[in-house]
Every structure is written in structure tokens, then in C-alpha cells.
């Protein structure tokens, strides 16, 4: 029997979160308080099925069933660090199905709206100063771009030629232009696949 075996569940969870912060996030350059703070407090194991609680802090995505995923910790940490949420932000999170990213952003912005991928494909008004997409997209739909304010910022996973990267988007006119920040394994959101018949 090991020390971890005899630890209380909450103690083991806190230990796993500290290990995630030190061995996965900080070593990869994620050190901003807007990422480290909430990720050290919010229990990832509460956002996965009971059978997956023991692997919630591993450096990989956790399948949730029905095509939904909890992305790896490094993706969420990088997303938050690049977003640098502000107290006056009007934010939208397109949730990948876990609810974890909205929990991390809660309390860091003035207003938070959580959308499913299907809801993000419906028309909306451009009032959000920050949009975070919890997964990798192939195609940025006009309906979601329209929700972003003209000076707003968008952070997402982006798939190009089968390779996923974290990317920062800025709105110019009615379109969003992306700057890739680094390749990473990120669950793809099927709802944002490039429509058939399109080509780059």
C-alpha cells in the first residue's frame, strides 16, 4: 500500500492538481495566474465519468462519450493564458461537452455565456469581447464570427491539413483571421468541420 492509497480523496485530488500544474503547465510555459489559479482550484475529476476520475489529470484528453471530450490540461491552460481574460470581458465559451472550461473562466469576466457547438452555429449579435472554443475547429462559421465584437479576440484549437494547433483569432470586417501559436493534440469539434465541397 502506498501513501496515495491511504490519502483522503480530497487530498489525493489536490495532490494531482499540484502535480498537473508543476509537471504539465509550468514546464510548458503556462504560468499566468488566469490559468494557474483556477486550474489549481477546479477539480477536473468532477467533469468526467466516475470510471475516468483516476485519469482526469493525465496529460491527454479524456473521452466522455457521445463524441464529447475533456481536453488535456495543457490545452486549457494555454487557452486561458492566451485569452488573458479581463474583469470587463463579455465572454462566450463554446463548450466541448465537459463544462470544465466555463468553470475555469467563471469569476474572471463580467459576463459569461456558454454555448454548445450547435448553438454556436445559430445567428447571434457581435457583442463578445472574448470567445473561447473548447476544441479544435476546421472552419470558422460566419454565425460565430458575427458574435465577436470588432475589437474582440478569439482563442481556439485550429485544424489545418489534419494538424491541430492552438490559435489566436482577430476579427477584421466580418471575417476572423488566425495566428497559430503551437501544435498540440486537441479533440476536434465535428460541428465545425469544413463543409463538403470546400477547399483551401
Tags for this model:
200 residues, 8 strands, six-stranded mixed sheet, 30% strand, two-stranded antiparallel ribbon, alpha/beta
Task: Note down, in words, how this protein is organized.
The protein is α/β, with parallel strands linked by helices and 200 residues long. It contains seven helices and eight strands. The strands form two sheets. Strands 4-3-5-6-7-8 form a six-stranded mixed beta sheet. Strand 6 and strand 7 (163-172) form a beta hairpin.
Number of strands: 8
Oligomer: single chain
Through-space gap between termini: 56 Å
Specify Rg, calculated over alpha carbons.
17 Å
Question: Which spans of ≥5 residues are poorly predicted at pLDDT below 50?
Answer: 1-7
- Mean model confidence by pLDDT: 92
The largest beta-sheet arranges its strands as 4-3-5-6-7-8
Specify the biggest β-sheet: 6 strands, mixed
Compact overview of the structure:
This protein is α/β, with parallel strands linked by helices and 200 residues long. It is 28% helix and 30% strand.
Topology, element by element:
Blueprint: H1 3-6, H2 9-25, H3 33-41, E1 62-65, E2 68-70, H4 73-83, E3 90-94, H5 100-105, E4 111-115, H6 117-120, E5 128-137, H7 142-145, E6 148-160, E7 163-172, E8 175-183
Parallel strand pairs: 3-4, 3-5, 5-6
Antiparallel strand pairs: 1-2, 6-7, 7-8
Helix pairs in contact: 2-3, 3-4
Amino acid at each position: 500500500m502506498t501513501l496515495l492509497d491511504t490519502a483522503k480523496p480530497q487530498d489525493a485530488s489536490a495532490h494531482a492538481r499540484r502535480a498537473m500544474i508543476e509537471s504539465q503547465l509550468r514546464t510548458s510555459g503556462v504560468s499566468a495566474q488566469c490559468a494557474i489559479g483556477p486550474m489549481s482550484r477546479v477539480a477536473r475529476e468532477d467533469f468526467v465519468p466516475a470510471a475516468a476520475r483516476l485519469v482526469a489529470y493525465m496529460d491527454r484528453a479524456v473521452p466522455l462519450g457521445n463524441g464529447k471530450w475533456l481536453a488535456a490540461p495543457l490545452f486549457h491552460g494555454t487557452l486561458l493564458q492566451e485569452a488573458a481574460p479581463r474583469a470587463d470581458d463579455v465572454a462566450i465559451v463554446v463548450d466541448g461537452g465537459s463544462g470544465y472550461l466555463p468553470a475555469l473562466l467563471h469569476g474572471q469576466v463580467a459576463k459569461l455565456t456558454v454555448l454548445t457547438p450547435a448553438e454556436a452555429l445559430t445567428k447571434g449579435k457581435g457583442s463578445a469581447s472574448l470567445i473561447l472554443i473548447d476544441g479544435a475547429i476546421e472552419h470558422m462559421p460566419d454565425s460565430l464570427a458575427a458574435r465577436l465584437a470588432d475589437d474582440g479576440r478569439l482563442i481556439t484549437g485550429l485544424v489545418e491539413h489534419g494538424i491541430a494547433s492552438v490559435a489566436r483569432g482577430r476579427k477584421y470586417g466580418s471575417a476572423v483571421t488566425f495566428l497559430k501559436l503551437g501544435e498540440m493534440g486537441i479533440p476536434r469539434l465535428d460541428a465545425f468541420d469544413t463543409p463538403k465541397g470546400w477547399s483551401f
